[in-house]
Amino acid sequence: MKFPVFFFSHGSPMFAVEHNEWTDAWATAMAKFPVPLAILAVSAHWETAIPSLTGSAAPETIHDFYGFPPELYRLQYPAKGNPGLAADIAKTLHDTGIKAVVDEDRGIDHGAWVPLRWMYPNADIPVIELSVQPRMDGAHHIKLGRALQLLREQGVLVVGSGHMTHNLRDYMYGVEDARPAKAFRNWTRDRIMRGAVDDLAGWTKAPHAMQAHPTPDHFLPLLVAVGAAGEDYTARQLCDGYTGRVLAMDSFIFE
Q: Which residue, among 6, 250, 37, 66, has the nearest Cα to 151 in the 3D structure?
């Protein structure tokens, strides 16, 4: 079968231990699908100059956040890696004209393991993480996703983890006007649902794009997911809503 592609707005690291409407949606996301052979997680929290893949057989759980309760730093997501598959994916990217490398030391950051902890709490499926390239444009990330399409027919689940909107300054300081975040969210959702991939690739021209994403890192996993979904995808909203009024929590499943 051909596995779906997911995009998650992954929320706070606290979501690793909090039951809410979003974590409940993640927990039931794979209910109608078989168990994948491996997971390829594209995380906003790994930024590199060129696409990089984790190549460790036992990747560490990275706690890449500060100022949270001690319990959060004790959490582990001890999924195995798959060095052979990582090397195969790197070769696939090379064959499509995308230079890529395998990093044998890098672990799995919270952008990946927070949602996966709800989807697969036993951590019994190998996980490979793929980085994003903030210095490269939307078209690059769509192309990157396109190169991953065949993995879906090989038992690999592709997951993008970022955020529909991600202005932490507005979130932390409680900005009163949430209209810019909502306008960007609505524009993006409309383009996703009707398959306007060229518009998404040029997302920086969207209404209030720079306020919704002062840096591009959390939007780029969505573009990789859209690319991996293929040209004739069907998108379904998995969950939505906001946290802190301006962080849109939209998540999607592409089939």
A: 37
